[in-house]
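REQUEST ID: PR-0412
SUBMITTED BY: lab tech R.K.
PRIORITY: routine
TASK: structure prediction, single protein chain
INPUT:
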Amino acid sequence: MGVGDMSIFERLIRYTLDREISLAKRVYSSNEPLVRFSLEKAALLDTIFIDRFVPDILLLYLMNTLDRIVRPQTINTLINKMEILVSPKVRSSLIEVADQCALDAVASSRKMSAIVAFAGKYISDSVIPPESAEGWSNLKLKLHIPTLISRKPDSLLGISHFNSR
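STATUS: complete
OUTPUT:
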């Protein structure tokens, strides 16, 4: 789907994201130590909160429930829309920053790793820009994100009621 196929709303979102990412990169490069410190503290607080106050059984229940109720077509649609709305430049920047700021506290937390792996398992490698393949591979390794198994809609598989899980 090319740029000509996008609605005005989609073009506006893409333009805004491109502008915000370029501004964020400039702010990040000019204040890198402060931004890195802030990101580390925010991630550390999130990690501590989840590790202490979210029981394992609740986390497991929520992830299993989401896996059961969210249809593969919904996930495919979301990923396709994100691929259209978020330009490769923005995706590449996000992966670069996440790779640089992948924190030891988050990576060493079993619960945070489970949450990141749960969300990351739906991101196919085809969505990742080629220039970010190495950064994505580093993130997958650091945060234990599994490789996505094909999530094609049932109609493409030729099977009427196929559950890929």
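NOTES: The chain has one domain: 3-151.
REVIEWED BY: pending
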